[in-house]
Amino acid sequence: MPEELLEFVAAGYPVPRNFEPLNTQELIPANFTYYDVLDYPKVATEWLKTLFDTPEHDLRFEQAFGEDAGYLRRYVIGYGYYQSYEPQQNITFIYGKPGNGKSTFINRIIKPLFGNDNISDVEYDKLIGEGKSSGRFDIANIIGKSLNISPDIPDTFYKNADRLKSLTSGDGIQVEKKGVQGFEAVNTAKLVLVTNHIPRNKADDGLADRVYIIEDRMPSMRHETERKEYAYDEAKLEQERPYFALKCLIDFWLHMDEPIRKTENMLRLEKQWLEESDPIKSFMAEHTEQTSEPNTGISTGYLYNMYIDFTGSEIKEKFFNEHLTDLGYVKMSRMRSVDEKDDDPKNQKTRWRGLHYYD
Description:
The protein is of the alpha/beta class. Helix content is 41%, strand content 17%. Helix 6 crosses helix 11 (234-255). Residues 8-45 and 338-343 have low confidence and may be disordered.
Protein backbone atom coordinates (compact mmCIF):
# COMPACT_ATOMS: atom_id res chain seq x y z
CA MET A 1 0.00 0.00 0.00
CA PRO A 2 1.48 3.41 -0.94
CA GLU A 3 2.88 5.34 2.00
CA GLU A 4 0.93 8.43 0.87
CA LEU A 5 -2.35 6.55 1.33
CA LEU A 6 -1.45 5.72 4.92
CA GLU A 7 -0.76 9.42 5.56
CA PHE A 8 -4.02 10.34 3.85
CA VAL A 9 -5.98 7.89 6.00
CA ALA A 10 -4.28 9.00 9.20
CA ALA A 11 -5.02 12.64 8.40
CA GLY A 12 -8.61 12.42 7.33
CA TYR A 13 -10.25 9.05 7.93
CA PRO A 14 -12.57 9.20 10.98
CA VAL A 15 -12.75 5.55 11.99
CA PRO A 16 -15.74 4.97 14.28
CA ARG A 17 -14.41 3.20 17.34
CA ASN A 18 -17.69 1.37 17.83
CA PHE A 19 -17.50 -0.17 14.35
CA GLU A 20 -15.23 -3.22 14.29
CA PRO A 21 -14.27 -5.07 11.11
CA LEU A 22 -15.40 -8.67 10.99
CA ASN A 23 -13.20 -11.35 12.43
CA THR A 24 -13.14 -13.43 9.24
CA GLN A 25 -11.02 -16.58 9.55
CA GLU A 26 -9.03 -14.86 12.32
CA LEU A 27 -7.71 -12.51 9.66
CA ILE A 28 -8.59 -9.31 11.48
CA PRO A 29 -8.72 -9.36 15.28
CA ALA A 30 -12.13 -8.09 16.35
CA ASN A 31 -10.64 -5.40 18.58
CA PHE A 32 -8.64 -3.86 15.72
CA THR A 33 -9.76 -0.62 14.07
CA TYR A 34 -8.77 0.50 10.59
CA TYR A 35 -5.89 2.49 12.02
CA ASP A 36 -4.50 -0.71 13.57
CA VAL A 37 -5.04 -2.72 10.41
CA LEU A 38 -3.21 -0.24 8.21
CA ASP A 39 -0.29 -0.12 10.64
CA TYR A 40 -0.06 -3.90 10.87
CA PRO A 41 1.77 -5.18 7.77
CA LYS A 42 0.80 -8.84 7.94
CA VAL A 43 -2.90 -8.16 8.37
CA ALA A 44 -2.85 -5.37 5.80
CA THR A 45 -1.12 -7.62 3.27
CA GLU A 46 -3.68 -10.38 3.71
CA TRP A 47 -6.49 -7.85 3.62
CA LEU A 48 -5.36 -6.43 0.30
CA LYS A 49 -5.62 -9.88 -1.31
CA THR A 50 -9.38 -9.76 -0.93
CA LEU A 51 -9.81 -6.00 -0.93
CA PHE A 52 -11.71 -5.77 -4.20
CA ASP A 53 -13.72 -8.96 -3.79
CA THR A 54 -17.04 -7.42 -2.65
CA PRO A 55 -19.61 -8.94 -5.03
CA GLU A 56 -22.72 -8.35 -2.88
CA HIS A 57 -22.04 -4.63 -2.45
CA ASP A 58 -21.03 -4.28 -6.09
CA LEU A 59 -24.24 -5.99 -7.22
CA ARG A 60 -26.49 -3.82 -5.06
CA PHE A 61 -24.83 -0.57 -6.12
CA GLU A 62 -24.94 -1.41 -9.83
CA GLN A 63 -28.46 -2.83 -9.57
CA ALA A 64 -29.86 0.34 -8.00
CA PHE A 65 -27.75 3.07 -9.59
CA GLY A 66 -26.29 1.70 -12.81
CA GLU A 67 -23.77 4.12 -14.29
CA ASP A 68 -24.27 6.47 -11.31
CA ALA A 69 -22.94 3.86 -8.86
CA GLY A 70 -19.35 5.03 -9.32
CA TYR A 71 -20.23 8.50 -8.09
CA LEU A 72 -21.97 7.06 -5.02
CA ARG A 73 -19.00 4.85 -4.11
CA ARG A 74 -16.38 7.54 -4.64
CA TYR A 75 -18.00 10.83 -3.64
CA VAL A 76 -20.48 9.74 -0.96
CA ILE A 77 -18.90 6.67 0.68
CA GLY A 78 -15.19 7.31 0.04
CA TYR A 79 -15.42 11.09 0.43
CA GLY A 80 -17.66 10.67 3.45
CA TYR A 81 -14.71 9.18 5.34
CA TYR A 82 -12.58 12.24 4.58
CA GLN A 83 -13.27 15.12 6.96
CA SER A 84 -12.93 18.06 4.60
CA TYR A 85 -14.71 19.93 1.82
CA GLU A 86 -11.44 21.17 0.38
CA PRO A 87 -11.11 18.89 -2.69
CA GLN A 88 -14.79 18.89 -3.77
CA GLN A 89 -17.90 20.81 -2.75
CA ASN A 90 -20.76 18.47 -3.57
CA ILE A 91 -24.39 18.05 -2.50
CA THR A 92 -25.91 14.69 -3.43
CA PHE A 93 -29.58 14.10 -4.15
CA ILE A 94 -30.69 10.46 -4.31
CA TYR A 95 -33.81 10.49 -6.44
CA GLY A 96 -36.18 7.59 -7.12
CA LYS A 97 -39.80 6.52 -7.34
CA PRO A 98 -41.80 6.18 -4.11
CA GLY A 99 -41.57 2.77 -2.47
CA ASN A 100 -38.58 1.52 -4.49
CA GLY A 101 -36.36 0.73 -1.51
CA LYS A 102 -34.25 3.90 -1.22
CA SER A 103 -34.62 3.92 2.57
CA THR A 104 -33.78 0.21 2.77
CA PHE A 105 -30.61 0.76 0.73
CA ILE A 106 -29.56 3.61 3.00
CA ASN A 107 -30.37 1.79 6.25
CA ARG A 108 -28.86 -1.58 5.34
CA ILE A 109 -25.94 -0.61 3.13
CA ILE A 110 -24.84 3.01 3.55
CA LYS A 111 -25.39 3.57 7.28
CA PRO A 112 -23.58 0.39 8.43
CA LEU A 113 -20.50 1.55 6.50
CA PHE A 114 -20.20 4.50 8.88
CA GLY A 115 -21.97 3.50 12.09
CA ASN A 116 -25.03 5.36 13.41
CA ASP A 117 -22.92 7.62 15.63
CA ASN A 118 -21.30 9.12 12.53
CA ILE A 119 -24.51 9.95 10.68
CA SER A 120 -27.07 12.68 11.33
CA ASP A 121 -30.55 12.98 9.82
CA VAL A 122 -31.46 16.67 9.97
CA GLU A 123 -34.50 17.25 7.77
CA TYR A 124 -34.09 19.25 4.59
CA ASP A 125 -36.25 22.24 5.56
CA LYS A 126 -34.31 22.58 8.83
CA LEU A 127 -31.04 22.16 6.99
CA ILE A 128 -31.75 25.13 4.74
CA GLY A 129 -33.78 27.15 7.27
CA GLU A 130 -37.20 27.14 5.60
CA GLY A 131 -40.63 25.79 6.49
CA LYS A 132 -41.99 25.56 10.02
CA SER A 133 -38.55 25.59 11.65
CA SER A 134 -35.62 27.89 11.03
CA GLY A 135 -33.30 25.03 11.95
CA ARG A 136 -31.13 27.37 14.00
CA PHE A 137 -30.43 24.68 16.60
CA ASP A 138 -30.45 21.70 14.23
CA ILE A 139 -27.27 22.53 12.34
CA ALA A 140 -25.23 21.70 15.45
CA ASN A 141 -26.32 18.07 15.05
CA ILE A 142 -24.36 17.59 11.82
CA ILE A 143 -21.06 19.01 13.05
CA GLY A 144 -18.45 16.26 13.35
CA LYS A 145 -20.51 13.69 11.43
CA SER A 146 -19.47 11.89 8.27
CA LEU A 147 -22.83 12.16 6.50
CA ASN A 148 -26.11 13.97 6.99
CA ILE A 149 -28.89 12.01 5.30
CA SER A 150 -32.09 14.05 4.95
CA PRO A 151 -35.06 11.75 4.22
CA ASP A 152 -38.21 12.42 2.20
CA ILE A 153 -37.79 15.98 0.93
CA PRO A 154 -41.22 17.66 0.61
CA ASP A 155 -42.38 18.51 -2.91
CA THR A 156 -42.22 22.27 -2.63
CA PHE A 157 -40.10 25.12 -3.95
CA TYR A 158 -37.24 26.24 -1.68
CA LYS A 159 -36.12 29.79 -2.26
CA ASN A 160 -33.13 29.93 0.08
CA ALA A 161 -29.95 28.15 -1.00
CA ASP A 162 -27.44 30.19 0.99
CA ARG A 163 -27.18 27.78 3.91
CA LEU A 164 -26.58 24.79 1.63
CA LYS A 165 -23.67 26.68 0.10
CA SER A 166 -22.31 27.64 3.52
CA LEU A 167 -22.48 24.06 4.77
CA THR A 168 -20.40 22.82 1.84
CA SER A 169 -17.96 25.72 1.62
CA GLY A 170 -15.36 24.48 4.09
CA ASP A 171 -15.58 27.83 5.87
CA GLY A 172 -16.68 28.49 9.43
CA ILE A 173 -20.41 28.85 10.13
CA GLN A 174 -22.27 30.09 13.19
CA VAL A 175 -23.74 27.22 15.21
CA GLU A 176 -26.22 27.46 18.06
CA LYS A 177 -27.28 25.03 20.77
CA LYS A 178 -30.01 25.55 23.31
CA GLY A 179 -28.56 26.90 26.50
CA VAL A 180 -25.11 27.29 24.97
CA GLN A 181 -23.51 30.43 23.59
CA GLY A 182 -23.24 30.40 19.81
CA PHE A 183 -19.91 29.37 18.31
CA GLU A 184 -18.20 28.99 14.96
CA ALA A 185 -17.61 25.53 13.46
CA VAL A 186 -16.68 24.01 10.12
CA ASN A 187 -19.04 21.42 8.69
CA THR A 188 -17.42 18.43 6.99
CA ALA A 189 -20.47 16.11 6.89
CA LYS A 190 -21.35 15.30 3.30
CA LEU A 191 -24.98 16.14 2.49
CA VAL A 192 -27.11 13.28 1.12
CA LEU A 193 -30.70 14.30 0.36
CA VAL A 194 -33.28 11.63 -0.43
CA THR A 195 -36.31 12.47 -2.54
CA ASN A 196 -39.18 10.91 -4.51
CA HIS A 197 -39.22 13.81 -6.97
CA ILE A 198 -36.82 16.15 -8.69
CA PRO A 199 -36.03 18.79 -6.03
CA ARG A 200 -36.87 22.42 -6.60
CA ASN A 201 -34.52 25.08 -5.29
CA LYS A 202 -33.63 28.59 -6.25
CA ALA A 203 -30.71 27.49 -8.40
CA ASP A 204 -28.07 30.20 -8.66
CA ASP A 205 -24.67 29.37 -10.11
CA GLY A 206 -23.12 28.77 -6.69
CA LEU A 207 -25.62 26.03 -5.88
CA ALA A 208 -25.86 24.56 -9.38
CA ASP A 209 -22.11 23.90 -9.40
CA ARG A 210 -22.45 21.73 -6.26
CA VAL A 211 -25.58 19.70 -6.93
CA TYR A 212 -25.25 16.10 -8.15
CA ILE A 213 -28.42 14.07 -8.67
CA ILE A 214 -28.20 10.29 -8.92
CA GLU A 215 -31.15 8.03 -9.62
CA ASP A 216 -32.19 4.88 -7.76
CA ARG A 217 -33.73 2.91 -10.60
CA MET A 218 -35.12 0.01 -8.59
CA PRO A 219 -38.79 -0.92 -9.18
CA SER A 220 -41.45 -0.65 -6.48
CA MET A 221 -40.79 -2.94 -3.51
CA ARG A 222 -44.40 -2.88 -2.32
CA HIS A 223 -45.12 -6.42 -3.50
CA GLU A 224 -43.71 -9.61 -2.02
CA THR A 225 -42.48 -10.82 -5.41
CA GLU A 226 -40.11 -7.87 -5.86
CA ARG A 227 -38.99 -7.95 -2.23
CA LYS A 228 -37.95 -11.60 -2.58
CA GLU A 229 -36.28 -11.08 -5.96
CA TYR A 230 -34.14 -8.20 -4.74
CA ALA A 231 -33.59 -9.32 -1.14
CA TYR A 232 -30.13 -8.52 0.26
CA ASP A 233 -27.77 -11.22 1.47
CA GLU A 234 -27.18 -9.72 4.91
CA ALA A 235 -24.44 -12.19 5.84
CA LYS A 236 -22.41 -11.33 2.73
CA LEU A 237 -22.91 -7.59 3.25
CA GLU A 238 -21.62 -7.89 6.78
CA GLN A 239 -18.60 -9.95 5.71
CA GLU A 240 -17.66 -7.56 2.90
CA ARG A 241 -18.31 -4.31 4.75
CA PRO A 242 -14.81 -3.36 5.98
CA TYR A 243 -13.27 -4.30 2.63
CA PHE A 244 -15.84 -2.33 0.67
CA ALA A 245 -15.35 0.71 2.95
CA LEU A 246 -11.61 0.81 2.30
CA LYS A 247 -12.18 0.12 -1.39
CA CYS A 248 -14.36 3.24 -1.63
CA LEU A 249 -11.83 5.29 0.33
CA ILE A 250 -8.97 4.26 -1.94
CA ASP A 251 -11.10 5.02 -5.02
CA PHE A 252 -11.71 8.54 -3.73
CA TRP A 253 -8.05 9.00 -2.80
CA LEU A 254 -6.97 8.09 -6.32
CA HIS A 255 -9.34 10.65 -7.88
CA MET A 256 -9.69 13.36 -5.23
CA ASP A 257 -7.91 16.04 -7.27
CA GLU A 258 -9.93 15.39 -10.43
CA PRO A 259 -13.16 17.21 -11.34
CA ILE A 260 -16.27 15.17 -10.66
CA ARG A 261 -17.49 13.63 -13.91
CA LYS A 262 -21.24 13.54 -14.40
CA THR A 263 -22.77 10.61 -16.25
CA GLU A 264 -25.27 11.15 -19.06
CA ASN A 265 -28.05 10.27 -16.64
CA MET A 266 -26.78 12.79 -14.07
CA LEU A 267 -26.63 15.48 -16.76
CA ARG A 268 -30.22 14.65 -17.78
CA LEU A 269 -31.42 14.94 -14.17
CA GLU A 270 -29.46 18.16 -13.69
CA LYS A 271 -31.18 19.70 -16.73
CA GLN A 272 -34.57 18.67 -15.34
CA TRP A 273 -33.64 20.08 -11.92
CA LEU A 274 -32.68 23.44 -13.42
CA GLU A 275 -35.98 23.59 -15.29
CA GLU A 276 -37.95 22.67 -12.14
CA SER A 277 -35.92 25.20 -10.16
CA ASP A 278 -37.18 28.13 -12.20
CA PRO A 279 -38.68 30.25 -9.36
CA ILE A 280 -41.25 31.95 -11.62
CA LYS A 281 -42.42 28.62 -13.04
CA SER A 282 -42.68 27.15 -9.53
CA PHE A 283 -44.57 30.20 -8.26
CA MET A 284 -47.08 29.95 -11.08
CA ALA A 285 -47.58 26.22 -10.49
CA GLU A 286 -48.23 26.71 -6.77
CA HIS A 287 -50.24 29.96 -6.75
CA THR A 288 -52.20 30.21 -10.00
CA GLU A 289 -54.63 28.15 -12.00
CA GLN A 290 -56.15 28.52 -15.44
CA THR A 291 -59.88 29.25 -15.40
CA SER A 292 -62.45 28.34 -18.00
CA GLU A 293 -63.26 32.00 -18.61
CA PRO A 294 -60.83 33.24 -21.26
CA ASN A 295 -62.06 36.84 -21.04
CA THR A 296 -61.07 37.27 -17.39
CA GLY A 297 -57.76 37.13 -15.53
CA ILE A 298 -55.56 38.52 -12.76
CA SER A 299 -53.95 41.90 -13.34
CA THR A 300 -50.30 41.88 -14.36
CA GLY A 301 -49.33 44.32 -11.63
CA TYR A 302 -51.03 42.39 -8.84
CA LEU A 303 -49.46 39.09 -9.92
CA TYR A 304 -46.01 40.70 -10.07
CA ASN A 305 -46.41 42.13 -6.55
CA MET A 306 -47.48 38.74 -5.20
CA TYR A 307 -44.41 37.15 -6.78
CA ILE A 308 -42.09 39.70 -5.18
CA ASP A 309 -43.72 39.10 -1.79
CA PHE A 310 -43.39 35.33 -2.21
CA THR A 311 -39.76 35.15 -3.37
CA GLY A 312 -38.12 38.38 -2.26
CA SER A 313 -36.83 38.64 -5.83
CA GLU A 314 -35.55 41.92 -7.23
CA ILE A 315 -36.57 41.13 -10.81
CA LYS A 316 -38.07 44.04 -12.71
CA GLU A 317 -41.74 43.77 -13.71
CA LYS A 318 -40.84 44.03 -17.40
CA PHE A 319 -38.60 40.94 -17.23
CA PHE A 320 -41.10 39.08 -15.05
CA ASN A 321 -43.82 39.62 -17.66
CA GLU A 322 -41.47 38.63 -20.50
CA HIS A 323 -40.64 35.38 -18.71
CA LEU A 324 -44.33 34.57 -18.29
CA THR A 325 -44.85 35.19 -21.97
CA ASP A 326 -41.98 32.81 -22.75
CA LEU A 327 -43.73 30.21 -20.56
CA GLY A 328 -46.85 30.53 -22.73
CA TYR A 329 -49.05 32.87 -20.67
CA VAL A 330 -51.08 35.39 -22.67
CA LYS A 331 -51.44 39.04 -21.68
CA MET A 332 -54.63 40.89 -22.64
CA SER A 333 -55.73 44.50 -22.13
CA ARG A 334 -59.02 45.80 -20.66
CA MET A 335 -60.25 42.56 -19.08
CA ARG A 336 -62.23 41.88 -15.91
CA SER A 337 -60.81 40.07 -12.92
CA VAL A 338 -61.97 36.48 -12.43
CA ASP A 339 -63.90 37.60 -9.36
CA GLU A 340 -65.34 40.80 -10.84
CA LYS A 341 -68.84 40.66 -12.35
CA ASP A 342 -69.30 44.24 -13.47
CA ASP A 343 -68.01 46.23 -16.40
CA ASP A 344 -66.68 49.16 -14.38
CA PRO A 345 -63.83 50.67 -16.46
CA LYS A 346 -61.63 50.97 -13.36
CA ASN A 347 -61.61 47.16 -13.11
CA GLN A 348 -60.58 46.65 -16.70
CA LYS A 349 -56.77 46.42 -16.51
CA THR A 350 -54.04 44.60 -18.37
CA ARG A 351 -54.37 41.02 -17.19
CA TRP A 352 -53.17 37.50 -17.75
CA ARG A 353 -55.84 35.68 -19.68
CA GLY A 354 -57.80 33.15 -17.65
CA LEU A 355 -55.47 33.18 -14.63
CA HIS A 356 -56.70 33.06 -11.04
CA TYR A 357 -54.39 33.66 -8.07
CA TYR A 358 -54.68 31.92 -4.70
CA ASP A 359 -52.52 31.96 -1.54
